[in-house]
Amino acid sequence: MSAPSSTLPDHHACEQARLSRDARFDGLFFTAVTSTRIYCRPVCPAPSPKAANVRYYANAAAAEADGFRPCLRCRPELAPGHPAWHPGEHVVARALKLIDGGALAEGSLEGLAGRVGVGARQLRRLFVEHLGAPPLRVHTTRRLLFAKQLLTETALPVTEVALASGFGSLRRFNAAFTQANRIAPRELRRRPHAGQDGDALVLRLGYRPPYDFDGVLDFLRSRALPGIEQVDANAYTRVFGPAEAPGWLRLSAWPDGEHALKLELHGPQSAQLLPLVTRLRRMFDLDAEPRAIAATLGAGGVLAPLLRKRPGLRLPSGWDGFEIAVRAVLGQQVSVAAARTLASRTVQRFGTPLATPVLPGLERLFPTPAQLADADLSQIGVVRARAQTIRGIAQALLDGRADFRPEQPLEEFVERWTALHGIGEWTAHYMAMRALGHPDAFPAADLILRRAATGGTGELSTRTLTKMAQAWRPWRAYAVIHLWRSTADRAEAAKADDTQPDHAAKRGKRR
């Protein structure tokens, strides 16, 4: 797939967004001011600088590469990620996914380049051409901005902040942070910060509006696994490992209508912090750009009224690839409720009990591939064919025949997974959608989807729906979520109608 022609909005759009502080453009570009050598988010509340002193950059790494430092007022570390590369399978897009996953924290530039099939020199050239900064600069900026957030919002010791942001040496962290921010970490720590909420470490996870958090919670609530996660009307709560020293988290809306979610972390190890935040940003689809999605899906046809009704609907993915794969197989040709029942039994029978439950109702971890590779699932009601498929998935993950690497193209992912016994196109695309958060995954054979695409008046064939969905690329997974949601909305409306008093009949009786 070709690279985006530009990752920066045109100059006029940037000017308008900057002057109006339009939150829809937050993270899509940064404003650098030559007179102060500071770069800001377009929503910065500071007085607008003179246009002659403004430069625009598509990302923070490019601004820092040109010698600008992040604003202490609008805090660029809180901006959502840039989505331009999210739907693509270009070399840069795939490499960015790996960097987000910590590839350069654990490996070399040569290793990163090898994973996306190019040489290190070519990868560097492509990054500079398309992003304005080389891979190592992108990686370092990401770590330093996360460190800045931890220093500003938490009471973590500076040594723990250095470790959490991927620096093995406090000396190297201090030097890198001071060079990028023109202020030492301990000096920044002396400024007021949000602190902690009881024993919780609290962080903001920003997004671009509109964002339908209630819609995401509704989707996850119907699939929540007792013992592992809880979803109420206001928040998502989950336990995470290791079993010997577990932690738990709660994600809710940030108070006062700020465009952010509130993450409360209890008991995480410092090295877990950045991977946890990265995982949650993917799971709750916090880096999407609703304008770009709506421009494609809302152009006309069955999706247009759905986009108008729920413009902020997002693509909820899952916590773990193996967990989603098991649940996808359990959900083959059964209802969401039936699949959830079987998944809950799997957790209770084969999941790892925590040494100490973190909260009432949160006392287990989902079973690992090793735990299910030879498990007898018939004892919990799983039919033989699906039990065999689940054991096959577990074994394929253990021996490397299949995986959830974020950089693999959609077609490659589907091809590898459908080579396994019991995995068809529907299951593979569902896994890509929910395990990878792939925006173009499309389980076209889904019966509910084929009915919803007619507006509830009939049923399309898989071939017809696949052809129709070509116009929705590269956002077909968002079309799936909107169509599934429209089915639920119609069911809720019908149920409400059934429970309403028959006013006409009553009026007739009175007459």
The neighbouring-strand order within the major sheet is 5-6-10-9-8-7
- Tally of separate helices: 24
Helical percentage: 40-55%
Spans with pLDDT under 50 lasting ≥5 residues? 503-511
The largest sheet is: 6 strands, antiparallel
* % residues in beta strands: 5-15%
Mean pLDDT: 92
Task: Measure the end-to-end span.
Answer: 69 Å
The secondary-structure class comes to alpha+beta
| Secondary structure tally: strands | 12
The best one-word shape is globular
Provide the gyration radius in Å. Answer: 24 Å
Describe the structure.
- This protein is α+β, with helices and mostly antiparallel strands and 511 residues long.
- The chain is 46% helix and 10% strand.
- It is built from 24 helices and 12 strands.
- The protein has helices at residues 11-20, 60-65, 91-100, 103-106, 109-115, 120-131, 135-153, 158-164, 170-181, 185-189, 213-221, 273-283, 290-297, 304-309, 321-330, 336-350, 369-372, 384-399, 410-418, 425-435, 447-452, 462-468, 476-499, 503-510; strands spanning 30-33, 38-40, 54-57, 69-70, 196-197, 200-206, 229-231, 235-240, 247-253, 260-266, 352-353, 364-365.
- A 6-stranded antiparallel β-sheet has the order 5-6-10-9-8-7. The protein has a 4-stranded mixed β-sheet with strand order 3-1-2-4. A two-stranded antiparallel ribbon has the order 11-12.
- A hairpin with a 4-residue loop joins strand 1 (30-33) and strand 2.
- Helix 15 packs antiparallel against helix 18.
- The longest helix is centred in the last third of the chain and has 24 residues, at 476-499.
- The N and C termini lie far apart (69 Å).
- Mean pLDDT is 92; it is low at 503-511.
